[in-house]
UniProtKB/TrEMBL annotation:
The keyword Transmembrane applies. The keyword Membrane applies. The chain crosses the membrane at residues 20-36, 43-65, 71-89, 109-126, 146-166, 178-198. InterPro entries: Put_HupE_UreJ (IPR032809). This is HupE/UreJ family protein. It comes from Larkinella bovis.
Length: 201
């Protein structure tokens, strides 16, 4: 149980670590267009992302797929930038209680596909922790569970801030989306420009 708890904590701390904020930026970009009333849509969206990264995290950690770490480290900020840009085209519903944000199933497909890329990024960290350890099933499950808890924590934090600003302080939802998505897009673009692999091409 101590090993399970240790890897669970590592998974949680990895995705919530401000020092490695790329995954945090992606989760923020995913839920920036939603409000607290739309938690069901956000749950579906995060589940799609979880399915994607869980699959490639398992396959990569078990060494069933091979990929270039440098390419993945470049693609992760690209996924963040694309997600943030799609937010700019979101039309704010006329009613604040509207479920209009669920109108595009393509957003869920995007979360699933981009989750596959992020899962390979997670696996780099997990494999460095496991080393030559023979049994990795339990650590893999615990780490992934920690990632999930971390995602939920980030989503709740973003939705809580959105609730305070939009519902209580009356900030326009359109403005909130543009500001958050703009900041995320700018940070993602910076990560792309400063990427060492891209500089070598």
């Amino acid at each position: 149980m101590s090993e399970f708890w240790a890897y669970l904590q590592l998974g949680f701390s990895h995705i919530t670590d401000p020092g490695g904020y790329d995954h945090i930026l992606f989760v923020i970009a995913l839920c920036a267009i939603y409000n607290l009333n739309q938690w069901k849509q956000v749950l579906i969206l995060i589940t799609a992302f979880t399915i994607g990264h869980s699959l490639t995290l398992a396959l990569a950690t078990l060494q069933l797929i091979n990929y270039s770490t440098d390419v993945i480290e470049l693609l992760i900020p690209v996924t963040i930038l694309i997600t943030a840009i799609t937010n700019f085209f979101f039309k704010v519903p006329k009613s604040r209680f509207s479920d209009e944000a669920k109108q595009s199933p393509g957003r869920y497909v995007l979360a699933l596909v981009f989750g596959l890329i992020h899962g390979m990024g997670f696996s780099n960290y997990l494999r460095s922790l496991l080393g030559q350890q023979s049994s990795i099933v339990k650590p893999l499950f615990a780490f992934n569970l920690g990632l999930e808890f971390g995602q939920i924590f980030i989503v709740l934090a973003v939705l809580a801030v959105a609730f305070v600003l939009i519902e209580l302080m009356r900030v326009r939802r359109h403005d909130w989306n543009l500001i958050v998505s703009g900041i995320v897009a700018g940070m993602a673009l910076s990560l792309i420009i400063t990427n060492e692999y891209l500089a070598q091409l």
